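Readers of this paper often ask what the protein records in our data store actually look like. Such a record has a labelled line for the sequence and another for the backbone structure tokens. The tokens are whole numbers drawn from a learned vocabulary of local backbone shapes. We quote a single record here, exactly as it is kept in our systems:
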Amino acid sequence: MPVLQITDEGFRLDDQPFRIISGGLHYFRVHPDLWADRLRKARLMGLNTVETYVPWNLHQPRPDEFRLDGGLDLPAFLDLAAAEGLHVLLRPGPYICAEWEGGGLPSWLLADPDILLRSQDPRYLAAVDDFFGRLLPPLRRHLSTNGGPVLAVQIENEYGAYDDDTAHLAHLAQLLRRYGVDVPLFTCDQPGDLARGSLPGFLATANFGSRSEQGLAALRAHQPAGPLMCTEFWIGWFDRWGGHHVVRDPAQAAQELDTLLATGASVNLYMFHGGTSFGFTNGANDKHTYRPTVGSYDYDSPLDEAGDPTEKYEAFRQVIAKYAPVPAEPVPAPGPKTAAAGIRLDSSAPLFANLAALGTAVVSERPLTMEQLGQDFGFVLYECALPAAGPVLLELGTVHDRAQVFVDGQPVGVLERENHERSVAFNVPREGSLLSLLVENQGRVNYGSGIHDRKGLLGRVMLDGTELTGWTSRPLPLGSLDGLAFTEDGDAQVGPTFHRGTVHLDEVADTFLHLPGWTKGNVWVNGFHLGRHWSRGPQRSLYVPGPVLRQGSNEITVLELHAACRALTVDLRDTPDLGPTEE
């Protein structure tokens, strides 16, 4: 692969003028068996480059553990991109935002009570150094200077929206160089943050989704010479629980792209293919009110969540063809889909009856946070004996993010961070009644100072003004469900319950799991954690990648936290339901 050069006039590749026409494609949001398909479709739309972030929290789930395999095999993804003839823009963070849990920063950093993330805090810098030292050496052969597809590497991410510490950016750039990254480095920021987030001596790029001429003018005013590039050209948006499904008119988005390309600038579409934040990996925003993001990252992209071309795909392809060669092959057809209705989940395993198989309780005077428990995702069950019978008022210091309250196993209330709820009144039936608080991490904040987002119960728990002490804190990460004891009783259960059933499939293909009549919880198919379901919407179906399924018997498990569908059935359908769009 030729090496990218940055000159006063623009990019050059193989000593020829070059324009980057790229699209976002996050390997960690796509099943690895489908990477090649998505990359091929990127090339067929006319892209010459793909862009990806790198999620630190998945690659290094614990300080002494590092993963670069399976769905995290970034070298394999880069090899596939090269095989497709695509260049790569690599954005290793360490912070990535991306509507991803904690902006990609691992939760174990927050076990230190006063650490300052994205700063010159020595504790943070030592962790970043260790991460880059593990991640970057295996990627050296993939740099264009070594014949690989990686043209350029980003320094941090939209730092100007967070701080203006040039010394921190310089430190990260030095780390990248120390670990062998010798391709061009760049920063990206929204136009108003360019002065705060750029680093002298390195290429600055801008992020925006409209008014391209104004955005590029701001970039040129900040950077008088060199290539003009929009690193995140927002052609869609993400959804949050309780909102609407956000879409953008394809013709209008294509016109904005045309306007940008007419200036001669380079571009990275955000996103070309959004994919899915599987499992517990969705992020959240907190601008005075906490708002968790849904699991679908469809993003109204040219490729939808299942990798099928949308109307935007053809519209963008036509625009790109005005400025660069586009393959003569036809637009790829939608892939096949599997459907099966009325799948009964006829066995159950109550969560409270299976606690020993899910996590080990830790005794302490006060409730422990997830981070203190060494836990990334999932739930924590807090339990304490109540001192006396009668009516009481329970007040929690801070709930991160949603607490279901039980007394002797019976539900008495729900407290949600999103609604700023911290107290609930109920009646204690007897002295020594067991108070249980099942607290869900709904996604760590991924943007702004709120990234210091510790989970569980924070602060003291008060009962009628007196602190409750003597707790057990039981981590329930739900990384494996193998130890659950299911019974085939066919009845809906009171309280959080796992429901399991099987479906026989003659043909295997992508599908969408729908849960009409269910309330809130999580879904696994053949042990693969699809993500969360919630009747609040807007998302009302979960994408099931074809490679997760198999011919013959397939197992579906649903954790229902509240009320299950009366018939205890789910459907596999050939179309998604991402909810109503904004008017």
